[in-house]
Amino acid sequence: MPSRRPPDRNIAPVAQRIRLRYARRGRLRFSSHRDFQRALERAIRRAGLPIAYSAGFSPHPKISYANSAPTGAASEAEYVEIGLTHERDPVHVLAELDAALPPGLDIVDAVVARTPDFAARLEASHWLIELPEVSVPGLQQARDAFWAAEAIEVERMAKSGLRKFDARGPVVLAEVRDPQGAPAGSAPCAILEVVVRHVTMSVRPDDVLAALRREADFEPPVPPRVTRLAQGPLDLATYAVGDPFAPDRGD
Predict the structure, then answer these.
(1) Domain ranges of the chain
(2) What would be the CATH architecture of the domain defined by 16-113?
(3) 173-197 pLDDT, tens digit each
(4) Residue 221 to residues 35, 135, 160, 168: CA-CA distances in angstroms?
(5) What is the CATH T-level fold of the domain 121-232, as seen in this structure?
(6) Distance between CA atoms of 15 and 13, rounded to whole angstroms?
(7) pTM score, whole prediction
């Protein structure tokens, strides 16, 4: 009986870990997390990066992802870490991977991982929710009702089944504003900016909108445009979301 052996892969130890921030823009906001995983693995091969693999009969590239945005949401702040068998300049890794990925999946920052517990630094997200055909006063009224509530229970289907959870408590900031630079006479478009703490059952923008619907009977006439502007450590004094790469830069 022929002996089984693992497929040929570079199973040399990890010599360097590089953390990447990438953006999901334009039509690529509709790509799933699995779509990005496949695209990144292809880009790593095209760029010739010395990616490390796990040992065993099913080796996989040493890539770890952190808190990806839901499908359909654009993002300027998605994070992934890759393990390399040889050290590389993170500036070159950024350029090589960005060139190998399709436009709309853009590598925008890269640092050498010098500190542990990166995922723990992703404490909150800053979301921009654009609501076409919604007036600022109408959104403000719904926001005020949302803000006045102590808790608003919503439902969402999770891997374990239908879950009920509070969509109000994790929201630490919710502000309504006009779009900047909108031409005179254009259709109304109100903007809701929210900062949401990351909790065990994460509260997403669609959960915030579900809470607005439940508490204020607010129903946008057309689907919103959602963008994650940042995710990282939360400043409890200002509710600003900071740069999670700062400790790795030595800032």
Answers:
(1) 16-113, 121-232
(2) 2-Layer Sandwich (3.30)
(3) 999 998 875 555 567 899 999 999 9
(4) 30, 11, 31, 22
(5) Alpha-Beta Plaits (3.30.70)
(6) 6
(7) 0.90
Residues for the chain: how many in total? 251
Phi, psi of 232, deg, nearest 5: 165, -160
User: What pLDDT, in 10s, does the model give residues 231-250?
Assistant: 999 999 999 999 999 999 96
What separation in angstroms does the CA of 233 have from each of 25, 89, 195? 23, 26, 11
